[in-house]
């Protein structure tokens, strides 16, 4: 705190947790001290003395002003002698470090004994065992995430000499971009995405974040999902939604493909090569508003589902096991995740190797067998060319890779139900270009956002300004000729003659 490495309020919470779980700790000398001893020896400053003495009463007990008896932290909370949010934070820390403390004898108790003595009850135990947002009382100083004390302990490293748990303060330059939030190098190590050797080389500056990001891109971003379609006859690239609007693929097929996009990370604009969350995609007309609610639901496979019983954020597989989503639906989305890089851990915001997914309960042997040997019942996707039911992986194998963007595009061998002939007159594009002030290199709006040259709001505003219009002449089956302008991004069509008549 004094070196400016963690904020004062974050430090205070961690020091209060020490005092409330037994002792102040000097990790250098491996000493356990009372609050008075810690202040006297200069381990903590005198400005924190009163607050830490108050926290220490979670060990020594509170005096009941009505009876004069010594009571526990939980009992003091119930009598409104301490604020509930403070008490829950401290009780959770005690529970995470070995059990609730008996203030009469100064030792920890098994949970059932603590309940018998009135030092905790089932309702409060449930709240702190599976803490919801309002009970997450600590902050990870590296990522600024709200965490429970138990979660913070898992992020610590155990000192080999003292066996003490030390919270690693990762350099903020050693953060990686996950699907929805930043990830520390320690999270990658813990998730078995990088090795101990890579971790050490990274922290010693022998390799860069950029180099490691390239090596583990599969887990940070995933590989390309089916991003759009490629029309073989016209050589046009279309978004899934555009292809549906042009009657080239059925609405049900389009929805399944869009749902798979949302559940594997992002909705894709294959024309501009943009990765968008569902709300952004609707705002930018990459998908229509009629799909918004269902795609937001699918997006929870990335951001997590809220368990209605515990309030905890759980994964797609866990939600399926608890019956929060239908099994066939869950299998379809899970298979799409695995086909595009791995199962997503919504808490960590990245994909996992299979072994790590097993360990965290985000996958099991039964589900692996179902997905390894799929039956017709579990083939949840549809090939619009052959009208076969396929797995997502099988459908991806039939895709082509766009040489410009590297995205996977589903090849459409013919224009389904399109009853018109057309001759193109011109295609007009408007692109916004950002220049890197350091290198002078031109880049797209998305590339500039990825490099941190512009913020998210600016990225959204500039991306909306980009467009690609195609002027075509259409001859219908009855010989009527029309001049049309088509927005190639959204698929919207405008009749030039009608527009001129309105003017």
Automatic annotation (TrEMBL):
Protein name according to UniProt: Plectin
Keywords associated with the record: Cell junction, Coiled coil, Phosphoprotein, Repeat
GO cellular component: focal adhesion; hemidesmosome; intermediate filament; perinuclear region of cytoplasm; sarcolemma
Compartments reported by the entry: Cell junction
Originating species: Dissostichus mawsoni
Entry similarity comment: Belongs to the plakin or cytolinker family.
UniProt cross-references to SMART domains, sorted A to Z: PLEC
Top-level taxonomic group: Eukaryota
Coiled coil: none
A Gene Ontology molecular function term of the record: structural constituent of cytoskeleton
GO biological process, one term: intermediate filament cytoskeleton organization
